[in-house]
Specification:
Number of domains of chain B: 2
Radius of gyration of chain A: 24 Å
Helix content of chain B: 10-25%
Largest interface: A-B, 77 and 82 residues
Oligomer: heterodimer
Strand order of the largest sheet of chain A: 3-2-1-4-5-6
Strand content of chain A: 35-45%
Distance between the termini of chain A: 51 Å
Order of helices and strands of chain A: HEEEHHHEEEHEHHEEEHEEEHEHEEHEE
Number of strands of chain B: 22
Shape of chain B: globular
Number of strands of chain A: 18
Largest sheet of chain A: 6 strands, antiparallel
Shape of chain A: globular
Number of domains of chain A: 2
Amino acid sequence: MSGSSLDSELQLVADRIVAQAKKGEQIEAYVSRGQETEVRVYEGNVEHFVSAQSQGINVRVISNGRTGTSYAGTLDESALAEVLAEARENAELGSVDEWAGLAEPDGVAVVEQELWNEKLESYPTARKIELTKELERLTLGIDPRVRIDSADYSDASIESAFATTKGIRVSGRENGCYTSVSTLADDNGETQTGWGFAVGKYPDEFDLSKAARDGVERATRLLGAVKPATKRTTVVLDPFVTASFLSIIGSTLNGEAVSKGRSIFANRLGEAVASPVFTLIDDPTDSRAYSATDIDGEGLAARRNVLMQDGVLQMFIHSSYSARRAQTVSTGNAIRGSGTPGVGCLALQVGLGTKSQQELIADIDDGVLIQSVQGIHSGVNAISGDFSTGASGLMIRNGATAEPVREFTIASTLQRMLLDIVAVGADIDWLPMSSVGVSLVINDITMSGV
Amino acid sequence: MTITDLSHEIDASILAKALIAGRATGADFAEIYIEDKRSTSAGLDDGKVEQVTSGRDRGAGIRVIAGDTTGFAHTADLSESGLLAAATAAAAAASQGGGGVNTVAFAPMTRQSVNSVRIVPSSVAKSRKVELLMQANDAARSIDGAIVQVSAGYADSMKRILVANSDGVFATDEQVRTIFRISAVANGDSGMQTGYESLGHTMGFEMFDDNDVAELAIRAARQAIVKLRARPAPSGAVPVVIKCGSGGVLFHEACGHGLEADLVAKGASVYKDRRGELVASPLVTLVDDGTMTAEWGAIGIDDEGHVSKRNVLIENGVLTEYMWDYIRARNENRPQTGNGRRQSYSHLPMVRMTNTFVLNGTQDPEDIIKNTPSGVYVAKLGGGSVDTASGDFVFGMTEAYLIENGEITEPLREGNLIGNGPQVLQDIDLLGNDFAMGGPGTCGKDGQGVPVGDGQPTLRVKSLTIGGTAA
């Protein structure tokens, strides 16, 4: 959202719902309308072209300490009336919660950002198809062992409005785009996969050549990979893998999880929970981040929060609900779902080191570069801290990458991994995700293979 | 309360007009998929019913195919003008030129009822649903003071669909699903541990007549308590015994996805060109069956309007058939198999599994454990994922034990197991006679989630790599 409160059609819909609040009733309405384009190219042809429009409304009602929510994927008049009635009915069924309530305006100023790009909005459809075909062509032109699974282009725009009985009233619009390629490399009856992507405020900013090179390199360098021996070792996480790791760490700093006894870092504020080289920041106001935004899921200003400074735990993130429970204030980290907003990091980044990935590898006698991980959802438990994922990558010997390896796991615990970080790279990569990518070196990981 | 099918609310002549508009630019095929879904969910956490939510999704997806290009548009506007606008957009997306006259004649409506709903969830007071959450919370907390946190969720949905296409297909289905989930956190000297159980069926509120949520809650709580004394899982390759009804996800990942015709057609599957070959231990017969009444992946018709089927994919170790949707079957000039599915009206259909399972073997499950001198016993699996091109796949173990001298001993901490599909299928050396279906699953592919079921008898894989930290 951009912070302006223009009286858009959507804003009027949200206002109208909120205006129906009865005495003692709190109401929040979030109304949105979106449009997306998706192009998939395969062997020089458009495999599919999707042009989609969506709209919806979410209503939250809090009455006598009880919360009810409702949503509909349409803005029909009949649906609007039904959504409010349903949310009210649902509120009668919830438990009384002394902390239930909407966010109070906190006076924190919105950091103005360019979240809407007119050049993307007016970008010709034919060019979107052309650049996707170009990405496929570029990728195929690098190495004869490489085939394409698909080349994709995707853009989305969303216009939304938000209103509450607490007087928060904000509307705006955002758009974004990216392109990606999935590759297959064949050799001696073996097939390995890779991917590459490019992001930009609008398509002309895409670095298609880099996306093509990445897609080719990731697939081809795994050809001939073997299953490594089991041992303790040092890993270098590729930027893309680090981004997933940061997202998990971010989830352990959720203030609601802390209050409910589900965080491994509860009661650790002010303590060194990570290596001194590690500084973790959630900064949705940095417009370089793909998920940069100006407003959180409750209509408060999104803000820069330093979560860990030189390894020392500085704070937990909060929505207004979790903040009330913890007797503190919202950090602007409410995130929207289909019901009551949850708590989450918006755009994680880290304090950068000084070395490139190659320089980091040069410092390692014996280790492994992790190109990709598999099964983060099935092998990482943020409550117990257990970390175990499938992996593939390249062995590191005497300061250089060596033979490719696959079909092994890497394991430790989240607590130990944070303390075992020995270096953060300088190779920042703004990925189409809510965490930044950068190389990360971690000691004492169990690599399980043969 | 009865459920009326969508054909009573949508005028067939408008559908025909929309399909004609979809082919107006000369496309070969047009299809309209209409969905009306109502859902209710309620969540409990920290002893409180935090939220009760209702949702309504209603709209149409229109797909137009011209040559190798698919155009797709969707709309929440089900009026004649809304549908025609979406059809025109899809036609424009599929083709730049052409044009011509076309007509549509619908065949008699196709219906296949695999859904035996007795109690439509919307006819049950929401307060009854909320009560279940409280019961589960109380039960989980009652078993041990070490249980420090409990969350529980109830959800039901009623999805009515209608599919019509320019080949004359005209079909409807009503899919009612009910699910209950519970997770517990236990705290001990070695930190926190979690337990999780879920129960989900393609049926109505009658699911709770035969299933006690308190029992489910106690199972989840016990899992967390047992894990408080868990030791780090081993590392390296070990024999693994997987309990019946917990490990269907192994087959879902090890070969299920690789047998989807879209991945096969693109040469992104290790099972390409292997029909008729021995791809698994002769003990293995693998079936995908959308007709299994009440199972989580059951569907009367698929999301392209074709009746669901029981398809044998691997028979006594030999690969017999892939799973097909409309497009891939059309390209190969063969029948589809009822596996064209989509998440919602705003998504394109593709090849998906339904209920995927391995049939019974002959071994007594107790003997399988006794005959394993050392290894790991997995009593509950988490999710998994696969790279179909290389065949490498992982799946998580959320409840596992060491096997020492043919006996189940110490509990293990969580982790992933990793293997290569074709190798693991060959390495299944013991198969039990205690077949059971597992819990409800959501299968993700290309950004879309659909409900799926899985099942298998107790079995042993003679070597799998386990992702623990112990030597």
